Amino acid sequence: MSIIDSLMLTLPELVLTGAALILMLVAAFAGDRATRLINAGAIAALIGATLVLGREGVGFDGLYTADAFSNFTKPLIYLAAGVSILLSTRFFAAEERLRAEYSVLILLATIGMGMMVSASNLLTLYVGLEMQSLAAYVLASFMRKDARSAEAGLKYFVLGALASGILLYGISLLYGFSGTIDYHGVAKGLADGVNMGELFGIVFVLAGLSFKIAAVPFHMWTPDVYEGAPTPVTAYFGTAPKVAAVALLVRVSIEAMGSAVESWQQILIFTSLASIILGAVGAIGQTNIKRLLAYSSINNVGFVLVGLAAGTEAGVAATLTYMVIYVLMTLGSFACVLQMRTADGVHVEDIQSLSGLSRRQPALAAAFAIFMFSLAGIPPLLGFWAKFVVFDAAVAAGLMPLAAIGIAASTIGAFYYLKIVKIMYFDEPAEAYHPVTSYVESGVIALTAVAVSPIGYLAIPMLGAATAVAAKALF
Amino acid sequence: MIQTFAFCLFAAVVILSGALTILSRNPVHSVLWLILAFFNAAGLMVLVGAEFIAMLLVIVYVGAVAVLFLFVVMMLDIDFAELRSGFVRYGFFGLLIALILAGELIIATGAWSAGAIELANRTAPISADLSNIEAMGALIYSKYLYVFEAAGLVLLVALIGAIVLTHRERRDVRPQNISEQVKRRPQDAVRNINQPIGQGVDL
After folding, report:
1. Above 0.85 for ipTM, yes or no?
2. Interface of B with A (CB under 8 A)
3. In this structure, what are the phi and psi dihedrals at residue A282, rounded to the nearest 5 degrees?
4. Which of A107, A146, A330, B54 has its CA 20 to 30 A from that of B175?
5. Euclidean distance between CA atoms A384 and A377, whole angstroms
6. Are residues A213 and A245 in contact, defined by beta-carbon separation less than 8 angstroms?
7. Which residues contact A331 (CB under 8 A, 6 or more apart)?
């Protein structure tokens, strides 16, 4: 494959890179006044990158793979990135001031995530992951006058650097013992039995990646970072990087370590169960809505890993289905959180301030309730289907105990989701919120609420077919 | 013959400047001796045919790291007398670390003389007819071009991030605005007042 063909495969990333560089120049010359224009340009670039997706093949001598799997996950990442840009404008204008670099950093992180999803070489994996992480550290402390935001960025940076070190150590072990950094080469090296060095390599790589997807026992940073980061950034952290890191984990597990399933399956079973239980239990005592959603994301990652732990094609397809539905629910919930502001327009994060929302703003309360019910996995809503497919895949793969404990633990999670619904519908009304002013935000809430409502089940056959094709590409 | 002479020269200067790095009283002199040691180590690397590492030593260590050291030493107010104190207290640990390093060196040379480690399938086999720099260049700019360019983007992200987090517009300074000054006319700037006696000036 010639270099031109390889470059054409990476066209989505090239479009985003070109747009990021041009928008950075616009930001440098026009300053923060051009923020709205730059945001529009960034969204146009994300749409453009989605439109040029579709080529399939292996480029750059095995460094980059574009296949049905990457073509399925990338639009999801672009959607999450685009929505977090849309949600940012009103928030930053109200909180501090609009800053032009926000959407440029989001675009650069998105390029890194595209690399992560398409990586078929441990080197591409690492560079993509670093690009995404570096931009994320900056975004976490984007409101630098806010002490909590600065703290979030610092914590994320220190722990993220540690995780990168662990990941790199694992990669170096895999490289040392298999002699190559190509996924298929590593798989060949693992096929003739896993020796001690290779096993350590697998464990360290999985530990490093568990940090990036915030799975227990590498979840400690999540509540603090989610709470401290500006809310649009938190919405972004909860969706796009999580999709990218999960997709990366799926591809590494199946393509590079697929010949040694039994050596990583038990690790994933442990992390998934620990994440489900700790995510559920940890959320119960929270009084801050962003911290609660952070624990909810840990809990959800546990369910995602149930699908992957199955190690089968159906399991990977279930993981992808879960991620799609999870992204919709999370974006909707954070768009609702952005509406929590006092009459003077100051954003609040206290759960008690939601009291009696149903009598103050019935539409907002109904949307919030839909997201909470859906996250809890209550049947008529789409969140139930997501949990159903992962457990179905786990049972089909013979992991009956994992599925049983997971379902039992998901009822603990239902408690705190339902607590929010109870506060909104049955408590005495608290001080009124500022009315919803942004059409963009109410549009995001309405669209995601419709998508996770029972109407969303109409899309299930299409989603099922698309995830099956995407999962098939890995096996 | 000339090789032996060059080796002895470089090796002797490395050891001498290494010793002087530790022994000199003035920390700025220490850093300068360290730079000399780096240069001579680069010479040793050229002698064994590792010209790429030699260039790295000069560019990275002398050009960046040592100059950074020099900046730190000259700009920060460090009490070097206090740093030097407690020799007896830390002497034991220093000796322990030195012993561990010496042991590792002996094991490494032993393993090296026992033969090279054979990897099952090498990603980039070493070709005999290419120099180090050519081989590295061929890998970085052709096979790993994609990752190389991406690394450039990572640096750009770091650059933007540093500016976003630290740059601030200062409003308490008054920069000179030359066009404003040139445009100023006497009638805008000068007032003639008939000041009454016994009253304050009304500005």
Report:
1. yes
2. 119-123, 143-147, 150-151, 153-154, 156-158, 160-161, 163-165
3. -65, -30
4. A146
5. 4
6. yes
7. A80, A83, A84, A235, A239, A444, A448
